[in-house]
Amino acid sequence: MPVPNTSSHKCFFDNSKYFEFVKRCREAGINIPIIPGLKPITGKKQLTTIPSIFHVDIPIELSDAIQHAASTAEMEQIGAEWLINQSLELKKAGVPVLHYYTLGKPAVIRKVLEAVF
After folding, report:
1. Distance in angstroms (rounded) separating the CA atoms of residues 95 and 49
2. How confident is the model over 40-70, as pLDDT tens digits?
3. What is the mean pLDDT of residues 27-32?
4. What domains lie within the chain, and their CATH numbers?
5. pTM of the model
6. Extended strands (E) in the chain
7. Alpha-carbon gap, residue 105 to 103, rounded angstroms
8. Distances (CA, A) of 49 to 45, 79, 94, 115
9. CA atoms 113, 60, 24, 39: torsion sign
10. Which of 24, 37, 90, 110 can bridge 9 by disulfide, Cβ–Cβ 3.0-4.6 Å?
11. Nearest Cα to Cα of residue 41 among 1, 13, 7, 2
12. Left if phi > 0, otherwise alpha if psi is -120 to 50, otherwise beta: which for 34?
């Protein structure tokens, strides 16, 4: 049972999933902050491991871009750009806090933070 007046983290790659989750929570009377958990996709293996571990969908556009990347650097750039766009949309919607998982790629997160904040 959740503890009142705390927060919850929710991982996703499609902001519409976050907005729908928050809407359903609010309709159910859950009023704690729901902090978006943002992860960079920086490698092809993550396309299968992240969904199986976290039970989330990866958008086709992101998956296709990663699959067609020619190098690790290109995959990291794609992941960073996706995360930047996600972050900017969430900030524009008034989401007060963004939580980033580095997944061993602090340089990617730094690039995102420099672009967003």
Report:
1. 27
2. 999 999 999 999 988 899 999 999 999 999 9
3. 95
4. 8-116 (3.20.20.220)
5. 0.87
6. 8-11, 34-38, 99-100
7. 5
8. 6, 15, 31, 27
9. negative
10. 37
11. 13
12. beta
Residues whose CB falls within 8 Å of the CB of residue 28, separated by 6 or more in sequence, listed in order: none
Q: Cα(80)–Cα(110) distance, rounded to whole angstroms?
A: 9
The helix-helix angle for 46-54 and 60-67 (nearest 10°) equals 150
Cα three-residue angle 33-3-28, rounded to 5 degrees: 60
User: Are 12 and 51 a contacting pair, CB within 8 Å?
Assistant: no
CA distance 77 to 65: 10
Name which residue leads in pLDDT, 7 or 18: 18
